[in-house]
Amino acid sequence: MGAPDRSLATSNSMQRVKVYRLNDDGKWDDQGTGHVTVDYLERSEELGLCVVDEEDNETLFLHRISSDDIYRKQEDTIISWRDPEYSTELALSFQETTGCSYIWDHICNVQRNLHFNSLNNDTFHRMNSELRELPAIELSTLPLILKIVVESGIADQMRLVELIVANQDFFKKLMDIFLICEDLENLDGLHMIYKIVRGIILLNSSQIFEKIFGDELIMDIIGSLEYDPEVPHVQHHRNFLKEHVIFKEAIPIKDPSVLSKIHQTYRIGYLKDVVLARVLDESTIANLNSIIHANNALVVSLLKDDNTFIQELFIRLKLPTTSEESKKNLVRFLHEFCSLSKNLQMVQQLRLFRDLMNEGIFDVIADVLQSPDKKFVLTGTDILILFLNQDPNLLRSHVVRKEGIPLLGLLVQGLITDFGEEMHCQFFEILRCLLDSFTLSGATQRETVVEIFYENHLGQLIGVIAVSCPSEGLYRLSNKVGHSGVLKNQSTVKPEILSNICELLCFCVLHHPYKIKSNFLVDNVIDKVLLLTQRREKYLVVAAVRFVRTILSRHDDDLTSHFIRNNLLKPIIDAFVANGNRYNLLNSAVLDLFEYIFKENLKSLVKYIVDSFWNQLVQFEYLTSIQSLKVKYEQCLDAFGTRGATLIVLDPRTRIEERALEKEEEDYFNEERYNGTGKEERAVVEALVLH
């Protein structure tokens, strides 16, 4: 291949630079300022750097570009090198970064052409037209091999892959040369080998990957990629893998093929994410990911089929003599084992999770959830979520058994315990999945879980809200709430916990309308949840409003009457009025509630709100929602033929007092009939509600 056209070289734009030379004292001397070009040297076919003085247009500096790797680009505006002819250090400092990049690219192009011209022209022509064989793997042929790897077209790349795969000693010989260059500190050779190995990896051949990722070659391959010519310092990837990466075996793995795949998978991931992270294309990354997934699937498959391995794992987990640290390592291994199982086929995944359930994994998780170590508890909840994502009925089938009932209690306890915000979300999602009534399978198990939850744990959650929102002389916790021992220290419950409880109650309203109705009417649940309106955290007040909105969306006449009879919207109206003219989430939530009431034509609620609270709401009459509520109220009066009645009927305080008396009577009868363990009486009420 010949040199570039002279017209191309002479058309280069001038770049303003300062020329520096390193003197004997180790200081840089300023040789002058001018404009640099890449051009042919006088009476020569060689290209060089020419700097023309900007003042007198005299030649300030000439340098023949060498094929040796002597040039360095620093800080985006400096190109420096050691001139082999004069044994001195030189540097060009550019005014603009674009000018520096422009000249740097030309130097690299000239060096590339010099490398190619040094090759035998006949050999190169034969290789370029049709790639028939690879040259011998020697230090002297590295430039030719580099050109073949980097410059081959698509057809030649396919042929190149075939030749490399067919040559059993290709990589062994290449790595032998790499080790020799490393011993001799031959940077030119090391840089070429880096480019060759990188180019071969970018060929993205699974057959080649199978060879280079083997135990014999992988560390040398990673070592050859430590000498990136574009990185100023040598990387130490092998040192990191050998000395800093520690492989922990929670339980000894006796199969050498499994161990080999585990180590190989980690190294491939390290190569992908660290060593070549900035040079790999998307298709190569996808291929490497598929190899990692295949390895993970093979490891999990081999381990799950090893009955002695699984049995020994659970024996150690259940032994009382197993140390706390060993148990944590075993559970972490179990978590990773379950996580990697997603690489298996769906049928194999389900079989594995069933086997783990039969071995007693849920009993292990129950112990984990009682640990004071928050991270350890998080690992346990992660395992449960993996099971729920696979098949929720596996966990449900355990919870409905006598020995599994405590696990549900631990999940509820986790929801109301201060584990941190992330943990609250974990417990919330697990409970919501267990109580989900929209799943198509496992109806019997699901109903049993729901029954256990309402019988044993709903009062526990409501009690947490009640004790965290004290109200003077209005609501007192009685033995009726149950689980009083759990609530002793709940007076400082974190707001996030209360928010999650309220969210779970909204979920229950939508999924279990009949269970909710019977429990809400008997135990004054709505009254207690509305205590959240007394909290100073506005988002908790909004949560209470959303809870009411969710209940009203059921269009249940009994629940609607319960709201009116017990004046249950008063806390929400009070909070709305206290919020004043602030346009915030609370304002929007209450106005949305009003809009829902009049749009759904809930006439009894419209009349109740206007009759009881219009004196408070009249100051907000300029709001569209309040106006619409008033219009709907007047339409209701027209329908009843009472249009002439005043908006504020008699004395509203009298109406509130009457409702308070009604509520007092209802509480009295509730205490008489349902206090204590009256399951039979409750069953009668539930039967009446259901019918």
Automatic annotation (TrEMBL):
The gene is LOC111460469. Residues 15-114 form the PP4R3 EVH1-like domain. It is found in: Nucleus. Keywords: Nucleus. One of its GO terms (molecular function) is protein phosphatase activator activity. Pfam families: EVH1_PP4R3 (PF22972), PP4R3 (PF04802). It comes from the Eukaryota. GO terms for cellular component: nucleoplasm; protein phosphatase 4 complex. It comes from Cucurbita moschata (Winter crookneck squash). This is Serine/threonine-protein phosphatase 4 regulatory subunit 3-like isoform X4. Residues 152-635 form the Serine/threonine-protein phosphatase 4 regulatory subunit 3-like central domain.
